[in-house]
Design a protein that fits this description.
CATH class of the largest domain: Alpha Beta
Number of strands: 19
Number of helices: 16
Shape: globular
Strand order of the largest sheet: 9-10-8-7-6-5-4-1-13
């Protein structure tokens, strides 16, 4: 069922806010709290606690793209020089070897995600070499999930078959929008026929979860263009759909997000109408809303994880394959031991220089304190289960009374309910999920930013 929201609430709550792929969010990390020895110790402790029980996850950042998409906020390097592939993979394996030196037993890898950039910039044989070498001193978890992001314009049938043969069963294709004029503006010429071709290849090969990434709020988008994009998407019936809000943050991402007239961006109420229209069409097509910005068919593992309350969220987004330890390999990749975050250097040169000196390429991070750990649980509960509670001592923190005061206004506006020390997000409150989490975000509330750090919440 679709729940339209009042324009007055959009105007009230459409403020800059984090997307909460972590807590604390990156701008509020205490970078002085961590150095490489602290991170190594935290990763080792987390590995010893969780490897045998649940395995570990790997996020591998492959930053290269042949052309610049002007909507993109990812860390990328634009080049047509494919000679960079092998040296970069060698760096990834060198970084992996430094982690293996910390662990006393073979890692059991439950989840691998190849992100970018454009993972399919790399030749299939180079991707196979990367994965094969990762497993020379690691085991595969019985319930593994390996996934990658595929650019429809350069994902070949050989890419799909090669990755399938080494264990990949999930692929997400970056579609964004099918309107020709919008594609020109965002520099992403990508015909529907091309997407359909790679989608059908993946289906025929045997991929069990095929996702499409769509974006609302792009320049020149209208309800008509969104309708056409969703209708074409429904012809292919992907298993899951990420329907993201375009995050316009050119002050962070530089000139890449200024490749169009900002007056062409749909504003506030108009932007929200695009989402509501898309959500209605997806619901009519049988998709179920999962957490924030995600939709899945009832046959997909994300839906199952929602039903069984096992949905998890990390720097890779939503996943059903939760692990305590996630190691990020590659330039700008973020690792998470649950107790600590660590991020790699953001430039390829700095990343490779650190590795050439036999050092983990970490340049910043955050060691979570006791309050961080408690609030992190609440944020994850809200983002993944649309509810949280504070009935036990381990879910309480010093500023909880002030948090409840802030939540009262959200309750009065019909966004959530609070009963018996429990918060439940209403269906019509899902668009405001980031605002709800912000009431718990005392890192941000105590240090309100003087400049805009985040995209708008709605």
């Amino acid at each position: 069922m679709n729940y339209p929201i009042k324009n007055s609430l959009i105007e009230k709550y459409n403020v800059p806010g984090p997307r909460y792929t972590s807590y604390p969010t990156v701008p509020y990390w205490e970078e002085a709290s961590i150095n490489t020895p602290i991170w190594k110790n935290s990763a080792t402790v987390s590995f010893n606690e969780s490897n045998v029980k649940e395995g570990i996850s790997l996020y591998i950042h492959l930053p290269y793209c042949e052309s610049l998409c002007t909507f993109c906020g990812c860390n990328k390097r634009i080049t047509k020089n494919h000679r960079v592939e092998v040296p970069y993979i060698q760096s990834l394996l060198q970084e992996w070897d430094l982690y293996l030196q910390l662990f006393k037993e073979k890692p059991i890898i439950k989840e691998i995600h190849l992100g970018g950039g454009t993972p399919t910039f790399f030749k299939p044989e180079n991707l196979k070499s990367l994965i094969d070498n990762l497993f020379k001193r690691a085991k595969r978890h019985p319930e593994w999930e390996f996934s990658f992001e595929g650019h429809p314009n350069n994902t070949s049938q050989i890419h799909l078959q090669t990755l399938y043969d080494i264990g990949f069963r999930r692929v997400s294709f970056g579609v964004q929008d099918y309107d020709i004029e919008i594609q020109k503006v965002i520099h992403r010429n990508q015909p529907f026929d091309q997407v359909a071709k790679v989608h059908h290849w993946a289906k025929e090969i045997g991929y069990t979860s095929i996702g499409h990434d769509l974006v609302f709020g792009l320049p020149k988008q209208t309800e008509d263009t969104i309708t056409q994009t969703i209708e074409k998407t429904n012809l292919l019936k992907p298993d899951r759909i990420a329907f993201y809000s375009y995050a316009h943050v050119p002050w962070i991402k530089g000139n890449g997000q200024r490749g169009f007239d900002e007056n062409d961006l749909p504003k506030d109420k108009e932007k929200r109408k695009l989402y509501e229209k898309g959500k209605t069409l997806l619901s009519e097509a049988g998709y179920v809303e999962i957490g924030m910005d995600h939709f899945a068919l009832p046959s997909d593992s994300l839906f199952s994880a929602t039903q069984h309350k096992t949905l998890h969220r990390n720097f890779m987004g939503y996943t059903h394959a939760k692990t305590q330890l996630m190691i990020g390999l590659g330039v700008s990749a973020i690792s998470d031991s649950w107790y600590c975050f660590a991020q790699n250097h953001k430039t390829i040169e700095e990343y490779q220089t650190a590795l050439s000196n036999n050092q983990l390429p970490i340049f910043r991070g955050h060691l979570l304190n006791e309050e961080d750990l408690v609030i992190r649980k609440h944020v994850l509960n809200i983002m993944c289960s649309l509810q949280t509670s504070w009935t036990t001592a381990e879910l309480q923190f010093s500023d909880l009374p002030q948090t409840l005061e802030k939540l009262q206004e959200l309750e009065q506006d019909g966004i959530l309910t609070i009963n018996q020390q429990q918060l439940q997000v209403k269906p019509e409150g899902i668009p405001f999920i980031r605002n709800i989490c912000m009431a718990f975000d005392w890192r941000m509330l105590r240090n309100k930013p003087q400049t805009q750090l985040f995209s708008m919440t709605i």
